[in-house]
# Entry
Amino acid sequence: MTSEGSDVSGEDVPLPRVLCDTAALTALDGASAGALWGLAEPGRQLDANVVRIPPGHGVDTHREPDLDVLLLVLAGHGTLTAPDGPRPLPAGALTWLPHGSTRSLTAGPEGLTYLTVHRRRPGMRIQRRDPAVQQP
# Structure
């Protein structure tokens, strides 16, 4: 029998663990905007972020050429706009954003909080915005 956290050769092996409580994050003060949480474990192959967009704000139209992204709406609702038109994003919506696709996001009147998961690309960061700065 080996100790927890080690394999037979004595090397440390990663263990599954709970990283955050998304329900607690979505209950944070509505003034919070930008990345509320990000996956930061060393040696990971994925990146993940919980992001909040304030009511009426959004993510401008952009194209991600290299990464597929899964987006899960945790709270609020919004609209995903792609070249073929707008799609509602209610709480619980799980959306695939394939690499090469063009899209934008707009938060509804309650704001929009979502989880994104994608392959790790070093140097990519979502930053927290200053709530005092108005975004178009």
Observations:
- The beta strands are 34-38, 46-53, 58-63, 69-82, 85-89, 94-97, 102-119.
- Confidence is low (pLDDT under 50) at residues 131-136.
